[in-house]
Write a sequence for this structure.
């Protein structure tokens, strides 16, 4: 039986690897085509595609929604096949773990782009200050940064497009601050608008603001580090009992009879769920206090 499972894993794994290579090449070619040609590959429903695109953007993942879904499904299949080589129950747990873990990981990374942008704001201010010292202007500095590949390049490219369409630079900066609510963007937009409007020796002021924002990011990072233990404890409290019950049900379904087949067992299950919810809420409050500090 073990030899049969190993043969199935080897054959199926080879077939899936070949399919992944073919899909990767197809997407590489599709990315080079015009946007009108790529729209035919959109197979996700409109609303689901919009939500997934927003989640991928917030997580700083450059893949298209269709590519992300394909990779997610194939990863679940590969995990299930590898688990099947060990035991059928392991295959179910591995596949279900990837299916559930994909959206959870994407949600946990939902603030990644915001953190990247917040970290890029001080550097952007310093580069604008360097451009001003070299005799340039705020507009030319932002245009140069818009053509780069940093986290703020797409936002600055939109800002530059608005200026080319007739908006003034202060108005474009104000619109950017309204759209991007990341920490530090509003202060940076105000300082850049003031520098572009008033003029004068603004480079030193921009450097001082950059230093202040960088210190603020350092304090926030330290607060997150100090609350990391409570955050991980909250995940353990919430996930470990559920994982244990699911694993027990998959390996030996009879083990759940005393828990859900008797009145005392159901009472204990309800009490345990209530305590789980209370513990998760308590730890969440601790984490929020740590982040706010």
């Amino acid at each position: 039986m073990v030899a049969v499972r190993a043969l199935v894993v080897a054959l199926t794994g080879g077939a899936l690897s070949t399919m992944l290579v073919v899909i990767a090449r197809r997407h590489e070619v599709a990315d080079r085509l015009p946007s009108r040609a790529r729209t035919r590959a959109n197979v996700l429903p409109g609303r689901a595609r919009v939500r997934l695109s927003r989640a991928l953007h917030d997580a700083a993942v450059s893949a298209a929604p269709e590519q992300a879904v394909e990779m997610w499904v194939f990863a679940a299949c590969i995990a299930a096949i590898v688990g099947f080589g060990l035991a059928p129950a392991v295959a179910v747990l591995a596949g279900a773990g990837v299916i559930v873990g994909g959206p959870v990981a994407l949600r946990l990374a939902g603030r990644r782009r915001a953190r990247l942008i917040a970290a890029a704001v001080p550097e952007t201010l310093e580069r604008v200050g360097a451009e001003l010292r070299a005799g340039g202007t705020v507009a030319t500095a932002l245009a140069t940064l818009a053509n780069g590949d940093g986290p703020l390049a797409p936002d600055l490219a939109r800002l530059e497009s608005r200026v080319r369409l007739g908006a003034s630079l202060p108005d474009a900066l104000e619109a950017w601050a309204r759209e991007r609510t990341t920490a530090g963007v509003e202060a940076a937009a105000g300082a850049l608008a003031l520098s572009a409007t008033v003029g004068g020796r603004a480079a030193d002021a921009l450097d001082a603001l950059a230093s202040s924002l960088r210190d603020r990011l350092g304090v926030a990072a330290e607060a997150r580090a100090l609350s990391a233990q409570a955050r991980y404890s909250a995940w353990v409290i919430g996930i470990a009992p559920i994982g244990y019950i699911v694993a027990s049900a998959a390996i030996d379904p009879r083990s759940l009879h005393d828990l859900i087949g008797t009145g005392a067992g159901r009472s204990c299950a309800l009490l345990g769920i209530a305590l789980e919810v209370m513990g998760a809420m308590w730890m969440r409050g601790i984490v929020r206090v740590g982040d706010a500090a």
Notes: The two ends are 58 Å apart (CA to CA). Residues 2-110 form one domain.
